[in-house]
Design a protein that fits this description.
The protein is about 40% helix and about 15% strand. It has seven helices and six strands. Bound molecules: FE2/S2 (inorganic) cluster.
Length: about 160
């Protein structure tokens, strides 16, 4: 729910309307929790506590069950995510060729730790095991783009491409 700046009343945000439509589709359907959580995350960008509360009430499931599913699967996020997701490969090939230096340089540049999101929500930084581009080690992915044979001095220019 959003709060109206003129009246102070709670009003339905466009996202809340979308969530209600999603819930209408899955109400009373036993296997609906995961698709509802996936849809809600697409709508809000992450899963705020009040959204989990709504889902729990509307699907008539205990909050603990909803929360348990969200925390079990890595695909679900309880905190806002950046517009651009940086995945730094720390698999064997990338590690041997300096992946950790790349990771450290990105942590320093963005001022976040592993899994962190910059305050302006521009970037989320994550480490991954192997992105299947070992021939380009050390490499990172930003959204769907692969950047390979990286050196730390190239990072600033690469980050500039993502607003
Ligand atoms: S180890 Fe980095 S892409 Fe495979």
């Amino acid at each position: 729910m959003a709060v109206c700046k003129c009246t102070g009343e709670q009003v339905e945000s466009p996202q809340d309307v979308q969530l209600n439509e999603l819930l209408d589709h899955y109400r009373g359907y036993a296997g609906g929790l995961i698709p509802v959580l996936q849809g809600a995350q697409e709508i809000y960008g992450y899963l705020p506590a009040e959204v989990l509360e709504t889902i729990s009430q509307e699907l008539k499931l205990p909050f603990s069950e909803v929360f348990g599913v969200v925390t079990f699967y890595a695909q679900f996020h309880l905190k806002p995510r950046g517009r651009n997701i940086i995945r730094v490969c720390l698999g064997t090939a990338c590690h041997v060729l300096g992946g950790s230096k790349i990771f450290q340089a990105l942590k320093d540049e963005l001022g976040v730790e592993n899994g962190g999101t910059t305050e302006d929500l521009r970037f989320t930084l994550e480490s991954v095991a192997c992105i299947g581009a070992c021939g380009l080690a050390p490499c990172i992915m930003i959204n769907d783009d692969t950047h390979g044979r990286l050196v730390t001095s190239a990072l600033k220019n690469i980050l500039e491409q993502y607003k």
